[in-house]
Amino acid sequence: MNYLVIGGSTGIGLELVKKLIADGHDVTAVSRHRGELPLEATFVELDILGDVTVLKNHLPETIHGLAYCPGTINLKPFARLTADDFRKDYEVNVIGVVKVIQQVLPQLKASKQASILLFSTVAAKAGMGFHASIAAAKSAIEGLTVSLAAEFAASKIRVNALAPSLTDTPLAAGLLATPERREASEKRHPLGRIGTAEELAEAANFLLSEKSSWITGQVIGIDGGMSTLKSF
């Protein structure tokens, strides 16, 4: 099967690419840099903030799954957030995926069994200070997920989202830069640790696969219990 992973050269996207290739699939990975992508992956150099119409020149006629992995971590007090901060988070997290889906929708429909996977955040539902901009953008992703799931169901395209808490990826490196910061982050989770890119990629792989063929319109928390549990 053919899979398209946007943001596939680092973090969760990279681990997902590796898992899809290990399962015998053909993977096109889109990113600004190739990074450590396996040689088996087809790499397309592209900034999703720019013109994405060139994607159609690099894709097969049929796509069975699309994962959109780019994200932002812009944590500031609300009073210090600018309108441009909100615009950038929305542009990367929402407008980027809208442009990509519109470009590849014909290939997804051609598969007659496609799956789209988006990424939200635990902060979209669990109120967290200093998360106003990213929580607003990711809340839009959750609305987009259920709306597209409803619209695309007739075309047999499933749409789901994962809502992780803090995950050990290059994007989160600044939040985990010292042993003290890492320990504090781990203690905030009921399970006593942060997530790994491999764990999120495993869940992503499942939702893209036929094993989840009766799951659509869902936002699934992969967050160490943070969204639903309270430690005493």
Automatic annotation (TrEMBL):
Q: Which InterPro entries match?
A: KR_dom, NAD(P)-bd_dom_sf, SDR_DHRS6-like, SDR_fam
UniProt-recorded Gene Ontology molecular function terms: oxidoreductase activity
Keyword terms of this UniProt record: Oxidoreductase
Q: Where is the Ketoreductase domain?
A: 1-167
Output the SUPFAM superfamilies linked to this UniProt entry: NAD(P)-binding Rossmann-fold domains (SSF51735)
Record PANTHER family: DIHYDROANTICAPSIN 7-DEHYDROGENASE
Q: Which family does it belong to?
A: Belongs to the short-chain dehydrogenases/reductases (SDR) family.
Q: What is the protein named?
A: SDR family oxidoreductase
